[in-house]
Hints:
Layout: H1 5-27, E1 40-48, E2 53-60, H2 65-78, E3 94-102, E4 105-107
Antiparallel strand pairs: 1-2, 1-3, 3-4
Helix pairs in contact: 1-2
Amino acid sequence: MRTGGIGNLNSALERYYGVLTSRISSFTEFPPIPGISTLRVTFDVDIYRNGRYRKLRIKKSSGNKTYDLSAKNAILRAFDPLVPKFPETIKDKMIPTGFRFCGTGFCID
């Protein structure tokens, strides 16, 4: 059983995800792409307790390779060399998560 209660665990996960999205946002740069405001791409990735990741993959492409690659590069740059380690309250060894880019930025909804 996890310590700290479900509310504390959810808060820790939300804070951790916030750190990750902030870090990715700082590396997000898109070249001029016609119609970029309508583009969306979604990635899945497995993040491990020690800050390593694997299986970064496109879940849903935008249909624009340049856009998709720019978004992927933002994630890769944010994960180099490692993402922050999990907070102590998160007992999982791995968290499967996803990131979605919308238009010229990163979206969390």
